[in-house]
Amino acid sequence: MRAAVLREYNADLSLEEVPDPVCEADGVVLKTLACGVCRSDWHGWTGEHPRVKPGQIQGHEYCGEVVEAGPLSKWQKGDRLVAPFILACGTCFDCQSGHQHICKSQRLPGFIEPGAFAEYVSVPFAHNLARLPDDMTPVLAAGLGCRVTTAWHALTGRAAVQAGEWLAVHGTGGIGLSALILGRALGARVIVVDVVPEKLSHALGLGAEHALDAREGDVAARIIEITKGGAHISLEALGIEATTNGSIECLRPLGRHVQVGMPVGHTAHMQINMNAVYMKNLALYGTRGMPSWRYPSLLDLIQRGAVDMSPLIAREIGLSGASSELRAFNGPTPPGVAVISDFGA
């Protein structure tokens, strides 16, 4: 099969013919219909993600059609499925408690085993997969696998956003845009923060009440002024020190900070304003991924038209275009996300 292989950090992925994946007893092999290119892939491509090594096939936001199903899998050939990026074992205490996203036996295609920057991908623990709704395109479904699911769980499973609350979103990449769209659907009043004017305008078009350029003064103070006391919830979507502190400092007393951006490599340890946390009695939530059992609630929201996630998708590209998309994360990116939909190009 054709795959884009990481051979050297910060260099173009190598387009190669590699062996087809093997189907595990509890898994499936999918023909990849679409795969998103995510900032988490960029962390691996730069060498900052500790689990991603040269030789890796990346790609963890995927949707595909079953071409082979293991004997312990409930799926059949021809089923079209979407996967969360964390594949949980389903039997451990955490999984049985409903917290599959923290499963200690989790499998991670795209990070430590071959992912979906390829024509086919092997998916173990296939009970984590969800059926693709008939009226949902594979391209849109691929965009759900990391960014949207993570934002959905951050807002509803961690921060418990309520209608009428002020939600500040720091960074309007894939997760930030997802949080904006979903937050609006849940009735929140959303403020976004970025440094790219085009992305700020795009966010206003998607329903943000305010869009602040972080280069223009004290963002936290401006949010406190706009909201007459501070945001109820603030979501950090980049994983860097400046925006993490901005997120904490813009909250009102008893506010909730949600760390969604990945602090990894040189950003793993930060200088954090803990005095603000202490004085304002803030709650800090870390969040990564989404338990697979929560897929139906998200898919139902989309299917019944309560939310339109299609504005998230900005570009469809061929497999050969993945390198340029990864390189684009080195600087400010344009609005929306890229999804690979042609694995022969």
Structural features:
Quinone Oxidoreductase, Chain A, domain 1, 2 domains, alpha/beta
Structure description:
The two termini are 13 Å apart. It is globular and about 55 Å long. Strand 11 (231-236), helix 7 and strand 12 form a beta-alpha-beta unit. Helix 3 packs across helix 4. The protein is built from ten helices and 15 strands. The mean pLDDT is 95. The chain is α/β, with parallel strands linked by helices. Residues 10-340 form the Enoyl reductase (ER) domain. GO terms for molecular function: oxidoreductase activity. This is Zinc-dependent alcohol dehydrogenase family protein.
Give the gist of this structure.
The chain has 10 helices and 15 strands. The chain is of the alpha/beta class and 345 residues long.
Give the SSE layout.
Blueprint: E1 2-5, E2 14-17, E3 28-37, H1 39-45, E4 61-69, E5 80-82, H2 93-96, E6 120-123, E7 130-131, H3 138-158, E8 166-170, H4 174-185, E9 189-194, H5 197-205, E10 210-213, H6 219-227, E11 231-236, H7 241-249, E12 251-259, H8 274-279, E13 283-286, H9 295-303, E14 313-318, H10 322-328, E15 337-342
Parallel strand pairs: 8-9, 8-11, 9-10, 11-12, 12-13, 14-15
Antiparallel strand pairs: 1-2, 3-4, 3-6, 3-15, 4-5, 5-7
Q: Main β-sheet: number of strands, strand sense, barrel status?
A: 7 strands, mixed
Q: What CATH architecture of the largest domain do you see?
A: Alpha-Beta Complex
Number of folding domains?
2
- Strand percentage lies at 15-25%
Give me the number of helical elements. Answer: 10
- CATH class identity of the largest domain: Alpha Beta
Quaternary structure type: single chain
| Annotated CATH homologous superfamily of the largest domain | Medium-chain alcohol dehydrogenases, catalytic domain
Approximate shape: globular
How far apart the termini lie comes to 13 Å
Order of helices and strands: EEEHEEHEEHEHEHEHEHEHEHEHE
